Amino acid sequence: MINKKIGFIGSGNMAYSLIGGLTATGVPGENIWVSDPSTEKMTQISSHFNANITNSNIELVQSVDIIILAVKPQQLAQVCTEITKAVSQYSPLMISIAAGVLSKDIEIWLNSEAQAESALALVRCMPNTPALVQSGATALFANQHVSNEQKTLAESILRAAGLTLWLEDESDMDAVTALSGSGPAYIFLVIDAMEKAGVQLGLSEKTAHLLAIQTAFGASKMALESNDSPETLRKKVTSPGGTTEKAIGILQEGQLEALFAKALEGAKARSIELAEILGNTSDQ
To answer: Can you name the CATH fold of 6-175?
Structure first.
């Protein structure tokens, strides 16, 4: 169990999910702090998890060992600038879950280069929306000032929302964004397409809906728990001359794999572009 005090700047869905996951694993609510201008959101978190709440980001920094930056990317520069002096004084582990904002920009906003005696320990994370139901996939990148103990702490916190893995190169985060960050939307699109096709085949909307969702869930569970690759699993359920082979053949004739590759390349390029835009936030 994590025995550190954890603070969340921002009380949105991802913060709520992480707090829920942490308390479910035994972290007491009194070890969790939340700051946000929205009193309504914080009151809900306080009542559900017995967490400490404050409208002051500086008070939060002064009260915790680990800070989760859980605000919108466009707000991050302003928040970091506000807490710079407090972060320099108290030297907490900083964890950013703000999508698309590079570590170097966060370090600049927090003025870490001026902290010669207490360099900023920063972990950047890219969780995806299934984290809201503790089934997320999160990639993490640590800057050079993060100790092994701090890496373990960061991983333990994000693991409360699902699978975690570390990246050696921060530039890989753009590919992660394209694959798992945006990935749930691709799966939802496939489920929706299967559901609509089922209705066209004569099934009721309710039946098609339930079958499409459960099929996607079951297939994902099999892929996660099996030692076989997805390609091998597909071949095992594709009998020669059968219905599955017919359907797969039509999808491959439509260049489905090439289309996915093109889509992810586009998402990665946009991730790189957005990081440049967000990095200029403080200059605007």
So the answer is: Rossmann fold (3.40.50)
User: What pLDDT, in 10s, does the model give residues 120-178?
Assistant: 999 999 999 999 999 999 999 999 999 999 999 999 999 999 999 999 999 999 999 99
Q: Which residues of 236-259 are buried (b: 16+ CB within 10 A; e: fewer)?
A: eeeeeeeeeeeebeeeeeeeeeee
* pLDDT at residue 116, as a whole number: 46
The fold adopted by the segment(s) 182-253 is ProC C-terminal domain-like fold (1.10.3730)
pTM: 0.90
Cα gap 109→8, rounded to integer Å: 18
Residue numbers in the chain where pLDDT is lower than 70: 1, 112-118, 281-284
Would you state the structure tokens that stand for residue 92, as one six-digit string? 């907490």
Cα(235)–Cα(267) distance, integer angstroms: 29
DSSP 100: T
Report in angstroms the alpha-carbon separations of 248 from 188, 251, 260: 19, 5, 15
C-alpha span between 71 and 98 (Å, rounded)? 6
